[in-house]
Amino acid sequence: MSTPFNAIVAEERDGKIKGHLKTLTLSDLPDNDVLIDVAYSTVNYKDGLAVSGAGRICRQTPMVCGIDLAGVVAESRDPAWKPGDRVLVNGYGLSEDQWGGYSQKQRVKSGFLVRVPDVFGLDEAMAIGTAGYTAMLCVNAIRDHGITPDRGPVLVSGAGGGVGSVAIMLLAKLGYQVAAITGRAALGDYLKSLGASEILDRAEFARDAKPLEKERWAAGVDNVGATTLATMLATTKYEGLVAACGLAGGVSLPTSVMPFILRGVTLRGIDSVQAAMPRRLRAWADLAALLDRDKLRLATSREPLSRVPELAQDILAGKVQGRVVIDVNA
After folding, report:
1. Local structure of residue 272 (DSSP, 8 states)
2. Are residues 78 and 166 in the same domain?
3. CATH number of 195's domain
4. How far is the C-alpha of 56 from the C-alpha of 169, rounded, in Å?
5. What pTM, to 2 d.p., does this model score?
6. 241-279 confidence digits (pLDDT tens)
7. Strand partners, 217
8. CB 220 within 8 A of CB 163
């Protein structure tokens, strides 16, 4: 009999799907080709929805939650991976239709694996996690659009969260002037320590904007959606770009075609879940080259697996600052 281990498993109880701490064995895991001794996971907004049951993320139950994991290969039926390899997984349906990272052990498909860059510890890989990797995809979209620092400031919404915090670090490192939107005034010093040069109140953007307003931003990274995204689009400069990757404020977009037609603004959707492997590898290589690890530590806290249900509620309530690493073995 295999040694039991802990996981956060979403199951349906009284008509609701919620995650709770549960004991599993290897025989419970899916029959995928790589067995991983998981070291760390993390908490993203999507994890909050899945574990709390606030969003229908888990498409089947039981489901081990957690859209990220980092660990070491224990067994592999794929010759591309061998025991001892340090690996990470972001997205690919983890916590939706693939068992996820809130587990001390997990079997995953070999095609999901990315090697952890040598410069990062496994805990740092999860301090970055899907949030940081998504931030890098957004920043690369801005760079690939030809928007250079001399074009003007870049606006980041949801700045106190994981995507926002890492986006600020990356943009500042690349020489961009960064304006950070937050509804938590107490985070001002924290955001400036990451590289933000201007702190803006969320209320300035969470409003009904005119179709076009004064041009202010060369580009934007939006984690919120709804009226915040509409206001960002209305205030983006000619031929600017807004990379949209979140919907914490809602799924609607109350805008018009005017920013796109009259100013040539581009709205670039960023999906991290099913992004092609070349884009993933580029993002992780860029993170290894650009990310200030001291600033990453400043933005990171660590919690045990048992606190995940509580943290799921906190992240949905906007109470989580920066990145939270989950030590699945604590």
Report:
1. -
2. no
3. 3.40.50.720
4. 32
5. 0.94
6. 999 999 989 999 999 999 999 999 999 999 999 999 999
7. 236
8. no
